[in-house]
Design a protein that fits this description.
The complex is a heterodimer of chains A (about 120) and B (about 110).
Chain A (H helix, E strand, L loop, with lengths): L3 E4 L2 E4 L5 E7 L5 E8 L3 E10 L2 E4 L6 E7 L2 E6 L8 E8 L10 E3 L3 E5 L1
Parallel strand pairs in A: 2-11
Antiparallel strand pairs in A: 1-3, 3-8, 4-5, 4-9, 5-6, 7-8, 9-10, 9-11
Chain B lengths: L3 E2 L3 E5 L4 E7 L7 E6 L6 E6 L3 E5 L2 E6 L4 E6 L8 E9 L1 E4 L3 E6 L1
The chains are: A mainly beta (about 120), B mainly beta (about 110).
Chain lengths: ~120, ~110
């Protein structure tokens, strides 16, 4: 079983629609992240959460919101989707007490979102 | 600015050695990571450097010079399955990724 799962894996939607992407993890990590990946731009951080009561904006949070429902769940919402939010979205988790205390991030399989 | 730069594409031959460079600018350095990403898949962790020097892990090695803002990933005995993108990432409070280097290994 995958440690970090994302649903849906693919989604096509229309401009103006509200979309929620979900992430679940069984790694027991406190820290969770949402990134988007665009060709030529690499991964960019949208939001991150270091525990259930902690939410922080990343590099490109405008147009997005998040909810940390539990240690294992972190959802990303697009309140009113627009075409330039078409991208590959990744969830990641980390544990600063884990592997050599490097706080290495472990990524989910990604959600490919297309906004028409 | 705070940039992370790496070559866009590289090509190498099966069995050879390839070095992928990464330069970075940051106001607060707390570690450099290399990830491998096959097309359409999630990035997977390869290596981590926080002190200057070389870290070796099987066919892969990573080097860091903090004073120069420079790292490289060295891949030895290249295999066809090594064809992938390689992402350099710097932790400086948050985590910032370079755009990635797409490596193609040819027979």
């Amino acid at each position: 079983d995958a440690d970090v799962t994302q649903t849906p894996r693919n989604r096509i939607t229309k401009t103006g629609k509200r979309i929620m992407l979900e992430c679940s993890q069984t790694k027991g990590h406190d820290r969770m992240y949402w990134y988007r990946q665009d060709p030529g731009l690499g991964l960019r951080l949208i939001y991150y959460s270091f525990d259930v009561k902690d939410i922080n904006k990343g590099e490109i949070s405008d147009g997005y919101s998040v909810s940390r429902q539990a240690q294992a769940k972190f959802s990303l919402s697009l309140e009113s989707a627009i075409p330039n939010q078409t991208a590959l979205y990744f969830c990641a988790t980390s544990d600063p007490r884990g592997f050599l205390s490097t706080d290495t991030q472990y990524f989910g399989p990604g959600t490919r979102l297309t906004v028409l | 600015g705070q940039n992370i730069d790496q070559p866009t594409e590289m090509t190498a031959t099966e069995g050879a050695i390839v070095q992928i460079n990464c330069t970075y600018q940051t106001s607060g350095f707390n570690g450099l990571f290399w990830y491998q990403q096959h097309a359409g898949e999630a990035p997977t962790f390869l290596s981590y450097n926080v002190l200057d020097g070389l870290e070796e892990k099987g066919r892969f090695s990573s080097f860091l010079s903090r004073s120069k803002g420079y790292s490289y990933l060295l891949l030895k005995e290249l295999q066809m399955k090594d064809s992938a993108s390689y992402l350099c990432a710097v932790r400086d409070g948050g985590m910032r990724f370079g755009a990635g280097t797409r490596l193609t290994v040819k027979p």
